[in-house]
Amino acid sequence: MGAASVASLAAVVNRQPERPMPNFDDLSRCFVALEQDTTLIAVVEMSLSSWLVSGLIPGVDRKPLKKVDPNAEELLCLLERWRNDAVKAGRTITRIVLAYEAGRDGFWLARWLRARGVEAHVIHSTSVAISREHRRAKTDRLDTALLMRVFLGWLRGERGHCGMVSIPTIEDEDAKRPGRERESLVAERTRIINRMKSALIRFGIRGFKPELKKAAHKIDGLRTPEGAPLPPNTLDEFRRDLVRLAMVRAQIQAIEQTRLERLKQTPDNSSHSMVRLLARVVGVGVETADMLVQEILSRKLRDRRAVARYAGLTGSPDESGSRRREKGLAKAGNARVRRGLIQLAWRFLMFQKDSALAQWFRGRTCGPAGARRTSMIVALARKLLIALWRLVTTGEVPVGVVLRPAI
Hints:
Elements: H1 3-14, E1 39-46, E2 51-56, E3 65-68, H2 72-88, E4 95-101, H3 108-114, E5 119-123, H4 140-155, H5 170-202, H6 215-218, H7 232-265, H8 270-279, H9 286-297, H10 304-310, E6 315-320, E7 323-329, H11 335-351, H12 356-365, H13 373-394
Parallel strand pairs: 1-4, 4-5
Antiparallel strand pairs: 1-2, 2-3, 6-7
Helix pairs in contact: 5-7, 5-9, 8-9, 9-11, 11-13, 12-13
């Protein structure tokens, strides 16, 4: 596609009048008035081998459906061709909007299209209501028609059709990588240790700790209850596991050291300042603080309900007629945040015993009539998340919470 065509698409967006937008991520509906006579609308059903593009062109009765190769340049050429069709029909296109469903391709296409004058959106997959038939027909053509219907409702500003995903910058996505890589490395370390312990149990050997640094020197001296050494193949396998464990341990240490250095180098960075503030709370480490900031607290969420809902710490009631029951946690939010908060809530009870939140928890769980601790810990995690969100956004310190001295 030529530079002139890209410039013409960019000019479409530049001609749009200024419209008020919210300063928080409320993506349940569109806040820009839809003018269908001057707006070119397109949706893309993406797959590994091809993209199916459906369009709604002003002044053109047909609803084009085009299959293209998974190539962004070809998609942009198709949008330019549809815009020319609208111009030939006597319509002036002042806005081009496109949406696709969140999935394997992530957000690169949305960023690429926005840089070239196309208003791109990413639809939250679970926000689209589908038929509950036991064997419903499902094809790319039907999925594209469904996406077009819900996207039109969203563009009209109506709630309930679908929700959009906030499109992060490359820097925002990259900032999440160290924490997520460390999480996978910690899981790999636990897997190696558990596998070695399980294998040793089969030989009747207990008490050996592969996580210790001296384990590599002690592995040769292990003896079974009969006094025999470990079989040679098993011993070689354990040596390889210990080498792999040492490498994983070194990589975890490198990630943690790099994070600390970056916090010291750019302390005034908005996310880094949040991490440093959260790390001052006794019981909250740098890893937990960084995870909370990068995954949820740095997002511009509307209110405390949106914060709890994004973490998946809200309930899922089931009410019909006189029947009332609670199905438990919705678990519709960020699983990393939810797991980390449950662990942090237990740790918070140990290090912040005099805080108002800890006293609230003990007041409802102590005694024979108290609620179950495992159930109430979820409520504590929800309250703790909201308290930490207020701490980093407004500076309000939770009542009774002890802070470390500022670094």
